[in-house]
Amino acid sequence: VKQLVEKARAGKLAPNEFQGGTFRQYIKSWDVPRIEKAAAFTKMSLTLSADHRVSDGQVGGSGNFFTELTSNFSDIQRLLL
């Protein structure tokens, strides 16, 4: 990891060195008292590459983005508006 950080800071990080990472968000699909309820979900891959300078180095900048994104995808009506 340290080598990748050094390469990134030097601007010499190749695309294949930062591809393939994952971010997982689990959405509960049933209430505990109703275990007979089940749902099937389609998996969607999403990639975020961010330069912290865009958000002025604000801590949690990309985390806030993913929180909003998750909210939008969790509520289909909100996504369609």
TrEMBL record:
GO biological process, alphabetically ordered: pyruvate decarboxylation to acetyl-CoA
Organism taxonomic ancestry: Eukaryota, Viridiplantae, Streptophyta, Embryophyta, Tracheophyta
Origin species: Eragrostis curvula
GO cellular component, one term: mitochondrion
Protein name: 2-oxoacid dehydrogenase acyltransferase catalytic domain-containing protein
Molecular function via GO: acyltransferase activity, transferring groups other than amino-acyl groups
SUPFAM superfamilies referenced in this protein's UniProt entry, alphabetically: CoA-dependent acyltransferases (SSF52777)
InterPro entries: CAT-like_dom_sf, E2/Pdx1
